[in-house]
User: Fold Small ribosomal subunit protein bS20 from Noviherbaspirillum humi.
Amino acid sequence: MANTAQARKRARQAVKQNAHNSSQRSALRTAIKAVRKAIEAGDKAAASQVFQSSVSVLDRIADKKIIHKNKAARHKSRLAAALKAMSA
Assistant:
């Protein structure tokens, strides 16, 4: 357990930050699922629009270092490839 005032404060901050980061990661997963669902539905226009908003979410979360930038790039690449494969 934290013994000093500084350590107690850092423990409190860590709890708040963990809750914030967890909600951000949840939003990320929701955005990715929304794109996949739109692609499966078959509506290319709607899927493209949802993809653009999810790319924004991915970039924002990567900029905050909640996920690694390469992981964000990998997700964007795979979603874009799935979107492109829809028209073929």
